[in-house]
Amino acid sequence: MNKLGSIIILFVFCMTTAKAEDGSRLWLRSEMPTDITLSIDSTMPDDDGYRISGKTITARTQMGLLYGKYALLRGEQGESHPYFKYRILNHWDNLDGTIERGYAGESIFWSLTPAPSPRERGDHINKYAEACASVGINGTVLNNVNASPKMLTPIYINKVKEIADILRPWGIRVYLSVNFGSPKALGEVKTADPLNPQVRKWWKKKTREIYKLIPDFGGFLVKANSEGQPGPFDYGRTHADGANMLADALKPYGGIVMWRSFVYGAKHQGEDRVKQAVSEFAELDGQFRDNVILQSKNGPLDFQPREPYAPIFDQMKKTPQMAELQITQEYLGQSKHLVYLAPMWEEFFGYVEPSRLVGIAGVANIGLDTNWCGHHFSQANWYAFGRLAWDPTLTSEQIAKEWLSQTFGNEKGKMKNEEISTVITSLLLRSHEACVNYMMPLGLHHIFKFDHHMGPEPDGFKADYPIEWCPVYYHRANKDSIGVDRSSTGTNATGQYREPYRSLYDNIKTCPEEYLLWFHRVPWTYRMESGLTLWDEIQRHYNRGVAEVDDFAYIWQQTKPCIDEQRWQEVDECLRFQQKDARLWRDTCLKYFGSFLSSE
Ligand code: GCU
Fold this sequence. Notes:
The protein has 3 domains: 1-18 and 417-484 and 521-600, Alpha-glucuronidase, C-terminal domain (Alpha-d-glucuronidase, C-terminal Domain, Alpha-Beta Complex), CATH 3.90.1330.10; 19-77, no CATH class; 87-409, TIM Barrel (Alpha-Beta Barrel). It has 18 helices and 14 strands.
């Protein structure tokens, strides 16, 4: 349909303006039907699954019935079971209430004393838990992976107990990020060496203390020997030594260790950063206890707008693995840009079959902001994460439609008209590709502004920082070429992939263009599939990204009569910002890269 056609239809169908909304109710605005029949059936195959027939919900447990109720609300019929056992949010929340890479206000769990305790924030945490449970999330890590040792002191463990008590009825277990150096940092043992008997004893005692208060505690998440965090290397030990020590402490209670593979600049300093996780972990495959799960980001670098999948998922054959996705938009416009992330995650599952994973972790985008996530549409990413953790075969489109109708539809989940739903769904589905285009198309990566990662800085270089933090390291543009040769003639990062991807990515002729500059160093004059030179193609992508955002803003204007005022205004404001920012990205990057061509 042409644009004029859409406008007319929208105006005709949207006769009334919906009542005031501020986004605080998330997607939980629909009325739960009162005439539901609930029935327990002990022969159902698992605890969390449910069967829905008409308005009858059958499950093996109360939890299954609860999941079933929310499924009924979104219109499901038939039987459904969770794909992953572990469906966990990771909050990067600090104990002072700030959130690392958080763009939606302060932590819902922590705050500086004498601010409210978790119990006083009970209603809020309860609402959070309901939202999580409504999409099947069943675990949450309450604090930043850059963990404070204080997390394990009695005062905080007691607060964790208060939070766990609120989350339990919603089927959500609590987990904690732990600082590997805690026994030493808290001054209770002279070392944190994982093979030292005193240290091992300390962790056992600490774990017992936690389980005494929280019998269903889930376990520990660990960032070790990465970006300045302490770890087993500090004592000449391996990641397996470190993880196994914690696993032994947790084992008697059924707890797990989620050990992160996000490491660089330690043992394999100097090696291509995207190769370092495999270099550190592949040789340890088979050495971890059975309650250790290796948790890896979807891509080998760091949550870039687009990355090829992380080859560590191919290399670890004996170790259970979890994928870590970033819901908070650290590198994707930080709750100021409308970017729906499900298409990116769907892309990931196209390469890494879900059957290789035991769980999914999502770095949360939740804070004390009235609308929870900063941008009204960022709520869709929280929702999509949960839905994909339950069923990774769902399409982005299906999830977008569900979320939209529950978030912007009426209380019965009905949009004012189908046309709006179609128009906004298409906007959502195009938004990730648009962001890739105006930020870093064709495999460009990590050309963000230093530290805060908002905005472009392709010329970024600071002699006194590790080279891996400098954007120029990631594109290496000069007057002839741009991109990093990670093929077998270069760093051989392609060699870490399974076939057919190894060969596909290795050959410049077969490498998908969306990853071209990630894997190859390419002359500016190289002919692309379109027949354009690389330089012309880069310009075309940046321009397309900007044009897409302009179109999103235009589409949003047309939806005005159908969306409640406050949310419409706030989204509109963000879209205007995004339009400006997309231009800033395009203009900065094209000016900088263009300067190499004109300097011939
Ligand atoms: C990124 C992010 C950090 C975070 C780190 C991690 O580097 O910018 O804030 O701590 O990832 O995942 O550990």
